[in-house]
Amino acid sequence: MTLTIGVHSSNPSLYHLYHLSRLGFAQEELAPLGETVVFHPYTNGVRTGELLTRGVIDFGGTGSTPPVTAQAAGHDIVYTAVSAPRPEHGALLVPEDSPVRTVADLKGATVHLAIGSWQTHLIAKALDDAGLSYAEDITAVRGNADSEELLRTGAIAAWVAQGAELAAARRTGGLRTLVRTGDVISDRSVFFTRRDLAESRPDVIEALTRALRRADEWAAAHPRQAAEIAAADLGGAADDWETALASLPWTIEPVSDAFIAEQQEAADIFHRTGFIDRPVTVAHARATADKAV
Asked: 132 by DSSP, 3-state: which?
C-alpha cells in the first residue's frame, strides 16, 4: 500500500517532514509495515477534510478550525494527534496609535485574517468572550500580501499575523498586540485521517505519529536550517523564520479529553455565529477504541 500524506506550508510539522523526506523519516517508520509513502502538496489547508474523503490524501494536518468545518461538511474524520499549545504562534495586531484598546472596540471594524484557519477560531473566541459575534459585529476579510500595509495606513482596524510575517512586523515596529493567541485559544496543530484508515490500521497511524515526532525533533535541534528551508521556499527573511519557528513547541501529544473540549467550544461558537451551518459533536471524530477509553 502507498500512503499519501497531505502537506501544506501552514502546518509546520508536516511541512518539515516533507522537506526532510530525503532523510527517510516517514519511510523508515512505515517500511517495516510494508507501506510506502508519497507526499501530496497543496495550498489550502481548509480542503484537508475534502481531500481525505475523496481519497486524494490519506493523512493530513491543519490548525484547529479545518477539522471542525470538515465535520460540519459531513466528512468522517478521526483525530490522530495534536501538537502542544502554540501560545506565541500568532497575534491580533493593531497600529500602535490605534484607538482600539480592547476586543470590544473592534465592533463594526474590518479585520484581516486567514478565514477558515485557526485564526477564525482565535477571532471568534475573542469576540465571543467580549460579548460580540464573529458574524455580526466585525467584517472579516481574507488576509493577503497587502494586509500589513492596509493596517499601517489605517485602511483596516486589525490583522491576525503569524509566523515569519508576525516576526517581521514586530521587527519593523509601529504595531501593537491587541490579542496574544495563547490568552484566548491553545492553537494546536491538529492531525487527522479517514475513519477507515484510523480504525483498520492503527499501526500505520502510530508510525506516522513517530515520523512527525522525528521531524519535530530535527526542527527543534536545527532551527537555523529549518528557517533557511522555509525562507528559500516561502519567502521572507531566514532571521524572521528562525524567530517564528523558535516560538513553536515541536511536541506531538495524544488526543486528550481536554483537546476535545477545546474543539467542542470552538464548534459551538462557530455554529452559534453561523460560521458552520449545523452543530458538530467533536467527540465523534475519535477512533472507536479511543472513545471506549
From this structure: coil
Rg (Cα) of the chain, in Å, rounded? Answer: 19
Query: How far apart are alpha carbons 121 and 259 in whole angstroms?
Result: 14
Instruction: For strands 110-113 and 158-162, give the pairing.
Output: parallel
Categorize the per-residue pLDDT at 59 as very low, low, confident or very high, splitting at 50, 70 and 90.
very high
Question: Which of helix, strand or coil describes residue 250?
Answer: coil
Degrees to nearest 5, angle at CA 268 with 266 and 274:
100
> Position 256: which residue type?
S
Helix, strand, coil shares, percent, the chain, to 5: 50, 20, 30
pTM passes above 0.90: yes
DSSP string, 226-239: HHHHHHHHH-S-HH
Phi/psi of residue 47, nearest 5 degrees: -85, 0
Q: Alpha-carbon distance 274 to 264, whole Å?
A: 15
Q: Cell 495524544 sits at which residue?
A: 254
Summarised one tens digit per residue, pLDDT across range 256-291 is: 999 999 999 999 999 999 999 999 999 999 987 665
Residue 256 · residue 190 · CB < 8 Å: no
Assess contact for 143 and 78: CB atoms under 8 A. Answer: no
| 74-102 tens-digit pLDDT | 999 999 999 999 999 999 999 999 999 99
Distance CA 14, CA 11 (A): 6
Query: Residue written as cell 515596529?
Result: 173
